[in-house]
Specification:
Blueprint (H helix, E strand, L loop, with lengths): L1 E6 L4 H12 L4 E6 L5 E6 L5 H10 L3 E2 L1
Amino acid sequence: MTTINVNGMSCQHCVRAVGEILSGFPGVSEITVDLETGDVSFMETEPVDRQLLAEKLAAAGYSLG
C-alpha cells in the first residue's frame, strides 16, 4: 500500500476527482482518499510516475504534500 498526501481537497467532489486521477494510472487499485487528513492510499502493481501524477493533480487544482 502506498500513501501520499494531497493538498487542496475540501469536499467530496475533490475526493472523487483525486480518485479518478489515480484510477487513470495503470496498475493502481484500492484507492482510499481521506478528506480530513489529505492522505490518499492505493495499491500499485506498476510503479506510478510521481512527476506525471503531480502534473495531473496540479491541472485539477491539487498538489502533492
